[in-house]
């Protein structure tokens, strides 16, 4: 058996350089590609990934190449491999997700991920503090487990046949349980982590099957050990890790084990548990995390030092990374090798595709392939000494210096403006005084009705935008399409009888990219796709320099929409935290400072909207909770700068301008105070899926601003009945002071089609009229 390789990556982008897997998946779901065709496409992509990674310098037969593909999600893969399928999916009959042998069928796999007529899908939520979403395991106290190594073992064998010894990657047992939620019928207080005893034999079986298939090393990912934001405490997680790796390490027939703790530092207790466990290698994140304590248990282990950033795009300080590697050598491990901090699944494939970007900016970047090259360089340095890689280290240092000195990276006028800010800049008149002034100006009925901003993005719109982007349509022609669409959306809202209108956001393909395209300091990529979930990918913008607004962004669209109606039309902006959360951010400036720069640009935009006669401005912050740090001690500081950035963006507004915000969720927890702190006049939130439970929570917390609990779920094409909407509204009107309650859908309508949208909004207005009569 081989030693752990000198350099490796913990994972690699999974959709393919041209999103081949996305296309195959969507063709399969649409019935245009059969199961065999899908499997062929996935197999071809896996083969390409292996040979590509070998060509980039990872050892082909030394377990350096991770076997880390997925047809949808790695947590779902672990659910399937351990047979941890919730019983609601397995009742015998045609709707079961299991095949005749009791394993999950391919169709069943996609039912778990996407739902079917008979089964709502598994819930989806964010993977640690990234923008990747995983499927949430649902476990009951009597959950059955059953090892199904078939897929991963077949891939290891397939790699062998291709001439590769790869390293299969699996979510580890502690993390699988720690991310699970109790099934709906589980008794109060049930902890999924209590199932560990029964889960471990299943992992043991998986490990021995993978060994038999030809794996020499297996990677188990345990990011739960770095988080303080899970239901289980760090102490409980560490105890579970101690138990799990004592058992798995002691197995006779198994491959060697690499246990990883990406996305931060493992808790002290978890680190003690892992270093004491009989496993052969540990991988730590030395980009987000810091160097852990030396531990005697390391003496027989390889330490895979994750000094190459798996999450952000900056080429970075390679010499400093090499210093960190040398420092890691002092921890007492038998060997130190080079790794990425996390899987590279959070990065686009290669900067070589970005031919439309300024080459100078490109020279400062490293996407997944360039990260692999950094790993192999550093590994060579470890083997042959620093002098052997001096040229590469110097080139990276020179790129850093070039970046620091480049025009636009540091703009004195922008810095001077943020430096001059005072506490008064984030204060408005007290909210209750504003409310009176606003009601005078806006003259809205009780239970005012509105929408969250976007209307359905029609095929015509998408075609027009694509033609314009390719230069096949003139800007005048494209803008005429936009004006026609805005006029149609305004007319429609008037007809339906909504009180506060929107322009429908037809000019935006994406709520962040649109702003990035219009702000200095940002760049957008051509092919910089990053998997968000399943077949979905986003193209995060690159925030590379100081941010400012060269010209108004949304004003003429808002002004045009307002000119078409006597009713108020909301201005519609994306908030500073969401703009940062959905971009690749700078590593050379504190996030809080960048947030202030973005906030000032938005503040100017709001002033221009006001000057154009707009009375209501909505600033969306759906990502406010997403960026919340995993470690409790970092949360307070984050909430301070993020809330202040929102206030800085909005507090320049006159008291008679009503500021709305929109959040896409309803589990507020630690962020409830932060939401109050935003000081918005009206907040719209998700509420329909939890059937309004959040309303009682807000009432109990004494939330005393306008609140629009989403009256129906826009994530499904289902049209809510008038009765259903009326019931939710009645609930809100009973529990909250009436003048606070707004009526709106859960979220924007851009992913819906028009027929269901018109029907649902009509029911929403009818329900409002009915409830208004009863209160
Ligand atoms: N205004 C945006 C829209 O309606 C909000 C979307 C979001 O919160 N994700 O599309
Ligand atoms: Zn939303």
TrEMBL record:
Binding site for Zn(2+) 2: 662
Cobalamin-independent methionine synthase MetE N-terminal domain: residues covered: 8-329
Keywords, comma-separated and alphabetical: Amino-acid biosynthesis, Metal-binding, Methionine biosynthesis, Methyltransferase, Repeat, Transferase, Zinc
InterPro entries tied to this protein: Cbl-indep_Met_Synth_N, Cobalamin-indep_Met_synthase, Met_Synth_C/arc, UROD/MetE-like_sf
Family that this chain belongs to: Belongs to the vitamin-B12 independent methionine synthase family.
Binding site for L-methionine: 452-454, 505, 620
SUPFAM superfamilies: UROD/MetE-like
Upper lineage: Bacteria, Bacillati, Actinomycetota, Actinomycetes, Micrococcales
Entry's Gene Ontology molecular function annotations: 5-methyltetrahydropteroyltriglutamate-homocysteine S-methyltransferase activity; zinc ion binding
Superkingdom of origin: Bacteria
Gene for this chain: metE
Residues given in the record as L-homocysteine binding sites: 452-454, 620
Root EC class: transferase
Function: Catalyzes the transfer of a methyl group from 5-methyltetrahydrofolate to homocysteine resulting in methionine formation.
Residues the record lists as binding Zn(2+) 1: 664, 686, 747
Active site per UniProt: 715 (proton donor)
Cofactors demanded by this protein: Zn(2+)
GO biological process, one term: methionine biosynthetic process
Official protein name in the record: 5-methyltetrahydropteroyltriglutamate--homocysteine S-methyltransferase
Ribosomal protein in keyword set: no
Species of provenance: Microbacterium stercoris
EC number: 2.1.1.14
Residues noted as binding 5-methyltetrahydropteroyltri-L-glutamate in the record, renumbered to the chain: 22, 131, 582
């Amino acid at each position: 058996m081989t030693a752990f390789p000198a350099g490796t990556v913990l994972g690699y982008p999974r959709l393919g350089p041209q999103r081949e897997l996305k296309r195959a998946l969507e063709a399969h779901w649409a019935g245009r590609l059969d199961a065999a065709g899908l499997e062929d496409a996935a197999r071809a992509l896996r083969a390409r990934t292996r040979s590509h990674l070998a060509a980039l310098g990872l050892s082909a037969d030394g377990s350096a190449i991770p076997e880390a593909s997925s047809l949808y999600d790695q947590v779902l893969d672990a659910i399937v491999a351990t047979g941890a399928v919730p019983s609601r999916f397995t009742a015998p009959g045609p709707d079961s997700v299991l095949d005749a042998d009791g394993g999950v069928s391919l169709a069943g796999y996609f039912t778990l991920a996407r739902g079917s007529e008979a089964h709502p899908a598994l819930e989806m939520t964010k993977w640690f503090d990234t923008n990747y979403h995983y499927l949430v395991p649902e476990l009951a106290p009597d959950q059955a487990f059953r090892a199904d190594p078939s897929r991963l073992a077949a891939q290891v064998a397939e790699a062998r046949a291709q001439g590769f010894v790869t390293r299969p990657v699996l979510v580890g047992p502690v993390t699988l349980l720690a991310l699970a939620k109790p099934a709906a019928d589980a008794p109060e207080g049930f902890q999924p982590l209590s199932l560990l005893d029964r889960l471990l034999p299943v992992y043991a079986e998986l490990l021995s099957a993978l060994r038999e298939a030809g794996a020499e090393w297996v990677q188990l990912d345990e990011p739960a050990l770095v988080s303080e934001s899970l239901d289980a405490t760090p102490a409980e997680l560490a105890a579970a890790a101690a138990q799990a790796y004592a058992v798995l390490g002691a197995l006779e027939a198994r491959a060697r084990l690499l246990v990883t703790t990406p996305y931060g530092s493992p808790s002290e207790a978890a680190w003690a548990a892992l270093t004491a466990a009989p496993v052969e290698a540990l991988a730590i994140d030395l980009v987000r995390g810091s160097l852990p304590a030396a531990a005697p248990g390391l003496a027989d282990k390889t330490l895979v030092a994750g000094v190459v950033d798996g999450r952000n795009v900056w080429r970075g300080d390679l010499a400093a990374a090499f210093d960190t590697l040398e420092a890691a050598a002092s921890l007492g491990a038998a060997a130190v090798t080079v790794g990425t901090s996390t899987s590279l699944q959070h990065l686009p494939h290669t900067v070589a595709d970005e031919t439309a970007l300024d080459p100078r900016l490109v020279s400062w970047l490293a996407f997944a392939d360039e990260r692999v090259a950094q790993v192999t360089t550093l590994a060579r340095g470890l083997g042959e000494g620093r002098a052997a890689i001096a040229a590469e280290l110097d080139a990276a240092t020179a790129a850093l210096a070039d970046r620091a000195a480049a025009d636009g990276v540091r703009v004195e006028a922008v810095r001077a403006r943020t430096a001059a800010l005072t506490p008064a800049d984030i204060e408005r008149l007290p909210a209750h005084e504003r409310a009176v002034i606003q009601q005078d100006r806006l003259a809205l009925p009780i239970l005012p009705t509105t929408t969250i901003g976007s209307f359905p993005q029609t095929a015509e719109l998408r075609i027009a935008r694509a033609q314009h982007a390719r230069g096949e349509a003139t800007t005048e022609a494209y803008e005429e399409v936009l004006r026609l669409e805005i006029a149609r959306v305004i007319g429609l809202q008037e007809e339906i009888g909504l009180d506060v209108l929107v322009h429908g956001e037809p000019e935006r393909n994406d709520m962040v990219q649109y702003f990035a395209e219009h702000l200095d300091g940002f760049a957008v990529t051509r092919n910089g796709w990053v998997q968000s979930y399943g077949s979905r990918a986003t193209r995060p913008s690159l925030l590379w320099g100081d941010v400012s607004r060269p010209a108004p962004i949304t004003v003429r669209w808002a002004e045009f929409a307002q000119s078409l109606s006597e009713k108020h039309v909301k201005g519609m902006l994306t908030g500073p935290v969401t703009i940062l959360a959905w971009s690749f951010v700078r590593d050379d400036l504190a996030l809080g400072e960048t947030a202030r720069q973005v906030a000032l640009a938005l503040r100017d935009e709001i002033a221009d909207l006001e000057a154009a006669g707009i009375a209501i401005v909505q600033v969306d912050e759906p990502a406010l909770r997403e960026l919340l740090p995993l470690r409790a001690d970092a949360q307070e500081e984050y909430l301070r700068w993020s809330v202040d950035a929102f206030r800085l963006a909005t507090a320049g507004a006159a008291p008679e301008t009503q500021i709305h915000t929109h959040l896409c969720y309803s589990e507020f927890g630690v962020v409830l105070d932060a939401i109050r702190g935003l000081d918005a006049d009206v907040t719209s939130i998700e509420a329909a899926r939890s059937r309004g439970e959040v309303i009682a929570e807000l009432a109990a917390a004494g939330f005393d601003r306008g609140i629009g609990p989403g009256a129906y779920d826009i994530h499904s094409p289902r049209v809510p009945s008038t009765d259903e909407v009326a019931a939710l509204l009645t609930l809100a009107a009973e529990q909250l002071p009436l003048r606070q309650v707004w009526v709106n859908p859960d979220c924007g309508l851009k992913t819906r089609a028009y027929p269901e949208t018109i029907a649902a909004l009509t029911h929403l207005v009818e329900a409002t009229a009915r409830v208004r009569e009863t209160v």
